């Protein structure tokens, strides 16, 4: 980071972000709620940022990303959108919904993942939303770009003009998604001021771009907050380097003199469990705890693992008594219905 960087106000950050074109898809700002019962139990001040309430087809963090990523859908003569991930992907659900709003058909290429093609959760929602779906063998989401290139050629041969969106695998998309979360940090800046506190910790379940936006936004605004990403996946790539790279490109785009390196990024993969897409008993226990004490339902693949980490950090003293903590609830709720057996069997 540049030593003489002067933090921006939230208003100034929003002004710069507003220079980047986008389409409106989300209900913003999402609420910031205090959680009185869990706060008492954990002896901290815990707030939850309700990004599950962004509104588009059951909401989630991807709606914010798509506001910026989907702008290019209006720029070319595209007649459809092509994207992919695993069969229970929240990204794909929100992308199909966004494309529908923009009047474009969507083709999805999905690795079978843990859940395959059972008509439940997100997979059921692709069907209701009217996407054209191909399911391919395998579980590794890092294989997706290759499958997407193949499908792209097939669509071109069929005289279609697809907008190919590689999302987390495309540096331009990840930077735009990061910008959308820098915007969420500006929202939080206003909301913390209204509530008279500054967060000591911000916990977000993050594969890469959402955390990058949190790191970027919080540094631009000069917060003292420790931004902690909890990974839902074991990456083959160096994720801290990837997050720092997204932050640097985002800073450049916003004309901000900040430099990020991997050692500034906190991302913990100790709560993934066996693998991506398989719930953990600690995650499901944390999901049940939040549901029982505050009436909020997390998801089994991402946020329940993030919330389990938060509870463990309190137990280990990483988060200390009376500290102010924000948990970003990035959505993913529809997956609970696809994971009914795992959830019912993990008490
Ligand atoms: C519910 C939920 N939380 C968190 C994430 C991680 O977001 P990102 O890949 O932007 O880090 C995802 C991504 O798929 C998600 O669906």
Shape: globular
Reading off the top of the CATH hierarchy, the class of the largest domain is best stated as: Alpha Beta
Q: What's the number of extended β-strand segments?
A: 10
Helix content percent band: 40-55%
Q: Name the hetero compounds present.
A: pyridoxal-5'-phosphate
> What is the strand content?
5-15%
Gyration radius, rounded? 19 Å
| Mean pLDDT figure | 96
What is the name of the CATH topology of the largest domain?
Rossmann fold
Our count of helices gives 13
Secondary-structure-derived class: alpha/beta
Overall tally of domains: 2
CATH architecture of the largest domain: 3-Layer(aba) Sandwich
Return the string of H and E elements.
HEHEHEHEHEHEHEHEHEHHEHH
| Main sheet strand line-up | 1-2-10-7-8-9
Beginning-to-end CA distance, first to last residue: 45 Å
- Poorly predicted regions: none
- Largest β sheet strand count, sense and barrel closure: 6 strands, mixed
